[in-house]
Design a protein that fits this description.
By secondary structure, this protein is of the alpha/beta class. It contains 13 helices and 25 strands. Strands 5-2-1-9-21-20 form a six-stranded mixed beta sheet, covered by helices on one side. A four-stranded parallel beta sheet has the order 13-12-11-17.
Length: 447
């Protein structure tokens, strides 16, 4: 350890990193929180932002603002790209591609996971995931633009393509997105168009398993399926999406039967996750084992074997029984901070014990499923429970009050007040519906 106060570097400003920094605030250590977005995002509500119910400001907050009262905590904007465990140094990249170094005595890796396309990275151009604010805004643009484009087309196959939405993965995020799109089509947009009937929009939900919400009790999973079917969501189980392109998807049944083609212009991907590139690099540099998804194997105290100064928390912690949920990240952040505090006080560390606080999934207005130990409920009671559970975890009092007010307003009406989206201007070669993109200009010419 260097002379003076111990230096703690936390990589990632999600639930794990934020809760770790908070607990180390005003302690005799110097903390640096490094994040590539400089804001904390409440990921479980990203789909509410994507479908127009909540604004960006209601599900996110500046890390610098959030931690301003902790004078020993410094926040930095950058993406960790290289680890030197011998020198205890991390190299980070600024948005302008230049780099800088941060030294540490303790390292907490809380970088989270990213969307996995199972080796088919080209799918990302047409099937965004749901992990960041950029993803949420991209999905909002695609969903609302699909209805707008359909309004300009005559009846026929091309219009039907724009009014067909495919969602891959029937976990909580996939179920929530599918339900919200159908609710959007049948309620919020129902009387706003002249040439199309938004309620005619098809929502296809694909999953390789045999039911939705496999992590929930079978009875809740069945209840969720009935709610989705009542909404009009078309459920397809035992299949995986084997191809995604500009105008459709190919679906391959796991039983080996014939592939099926679906014409659609909007595909949303929630089928899997994998470790971010830095996590895989860090595991290699630390000589740590990883699982198939890139989670790093850790000891009972969440430290990396052979490196007691390095902790891995949240989704990246590869240890039996640790789920990829916000509660695990929060508890892991508190635990890593507690271990560091015990080291400073020359006391023995304790092992990490995860306490399951339950799971919840929102399907549509008035319908959600909640599971907390032996307690299981759905319908309106589940919806109310879902709302207050999520709001309780929101960062910042301002965010809570604002989100409570907006959420309560949706009880009385189906209005979605944050539906604004922007087309054009980015020039990104993989950004659909962007007239300034050279790639898509070329595709339009070819068409």
């Amino acid at each position: 350890m260097s002379s003076g106060r111990p230096r703690v570097l936390i990589i990632g400003g999600g639930f794990g990193g934020l809760f770790c920094a908070r607990r180390l605030g005003r302690v005799g250590v110097d903390v640096t929180l490094l994040d590539r977005a400089a804001c904390h995002v409440f990921q479980p509500l990203l789909y509410q932002c994507a479908t127009g119910t909540l604004s960006i400001g209601q599900i996110s907050r500046s890390l610098r603002e959030e931690l301003s009262r902790h004078r020993n905590v410094t926040t930095l904007l950058g993406e960790a790209v290289q680890l030197d465990p011998d020198s205890r140094r991390v190299t980070a990249r600024r948005p302008d591609e230049t780099k800088f170094d941060v030294d540490y005595d303790y390292l907490v890796i809380a970088a989270g996971m990213r969307q996995s396309y199972f080796g088919n990275e080209e799918f990302a151009a047409w099937a965004p995931g749901m992990k960041t604010l950029d993803d949420a805004l991209s999905i909002r643009r695609r969903v609302f633009a699909a209805f707008e484009i359909a309004e300009t087309l005559p009846p026929g196959p091309e219009r039907d393509q724009w009014l067909t939405f495919a969602v891959t993965g029937a976990g909580p995020t996939g179920v929530e997105l599918a339900g919200q799109i159908r609710e959007l089509a049948t309620r919020s947009l129902a009387n706003e168009f002249h040439k199309i009937e938004p309620e005619d929009a098809r929502v296809l939900l694909f999953d390789g398993g045999d039911r939705v919400l496999k992590s929930f009790a079978p009875a809740l999973s069945e209840r969720a399926s009935h709610i989705l079917e009542d909404l009009g969501v078309e459920l397809h189980f035992g299949v995986h999406v084997s191809d995604v392109r500009r105008d459709g998807v190919t679906v391959s049944p796991k039983d080996g039967s014939a592939e099926q083609e679906y014409a659609t212009r909007t595909v949303l991907w929630t089928a899997g996750v994998e470790g971010v590139p830095f996590a895989r690099h860090a595991a290699e540099m630390l000589g740590a084992a990883t699982d198939r998804s890139g989670r790093i194997k850790v000891d009972a105290d969440l430290s990396v074997p052979g490196h007691p100064e390095v902790f891995v928390i949240g989704d990246l912690a590869g240890r039996d029984g640790l789920p990829g949920v916000a509660e695990n990240a929060m508890q892991g952040g508190w635990h890593a901070a507690a271990c560091i505090r015990r080291d400073v006080a020359q006391r023995k560390r304790k092992d990490f014990r995860y306490r399951d606080l339950g799971s919840a999934a929102y399907i549509s207005r008035g319908h959600a499923v909640v599971q907390a130990g032996p307690v299981k409920f759905a319908g309106m009671l589940g919806w109310l429970g879902w709302g207050f559970i999520h709001i309780a975890f929101l960062t910042g009092v301002r965010n809570r009050f604002s989100t409570v007010a907006t959420w309560m307003a949706t009880i009385a009406r189906a209005n979605r007040s944050d539906r604004s989206f922007i087309l054009g201007g980015s020039g990104h070669p993989e950004e659909p519906y962007t007239w300034e993109s050279p790639v898509h200009q070329g595709q339009r010419s070819a068409d």
